[in-house]
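Reopening this ticket.

The earlier resolution said the output was attached, but the attachment link was broken on my side. Pasting everything inline this time so it's all in one place.
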Amino acid sequence: MLGFVDVHSHVVPSGDDGAQRLEEAVQLCRLAATSGTSVLFATPHAHAAWDHHPWTSERERLFGRCFPHVKAAAGEVGLELRCGYEVFPTVLRDCDPERFALEGTRAVLVEFPGDWLALRDDSALLMEAADRIAARELVPVVAHPERSIGLRSSYEIAQELVERGCLLCPNSDSLLGRNGPTAQSLVERLIEDNLVALIASDGHRLDRPPRLDLAHQLLVERYGVASVERLFDGSALPWVTDRCAQKLQS
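Inline output:
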């Protein structure tokens, strides 16, 4: 069986709320590897300028310095670390979405605005960003839809996003109830309705680790292996390069 492909994590220091030190980053990557992940994307926040973690030249330099060291350490334990971003929708109004593509794919990880912003129109912003991504012949991967305020009140938005070509990518810890009962019930409904393409860890720290194995086990027990492997093996992604794509196609 292929190892897990995790498209959403904050395991490389970048000045956001993820790993803060190289030692912590290496520890998180080792934990991901021992939990069954073979490919992990480091996706630092690229927030809007007025939000918590805007993407600045200083943060870009920090990430650029740290990433090679963490990648090398991850490789020693059999984990392939790739780079990417978790992009706030409005950032794409002024930037080419292609610069934010997940390494080796034609996909861009775009997030629903954080619930701390209390934006009732978060779905409208997400759809705007999805259209901008699609216009560049890229595929939007929607991070943690189960945490969207708009989607919670208008569930049909999920179907509309999928019809627009979006890949919905809930967090594994939501399945485990760690983001509250509302998020848990919503992600379960999304899976039941076959609207989920990928499940990611959104791992940040040791108390919020980059693990997919517990969510995988839960879903295997509920639906069987054959029904859930596609949610964890990365086969939904539009791969464009190298051995990972070849493995997934074989």
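Reporter confirms the inline version is readable. The domain at 4-249 is CATH 3.20.20.140 (TIM Barrel). DSSP finds ten helices and eight strands in the chain.
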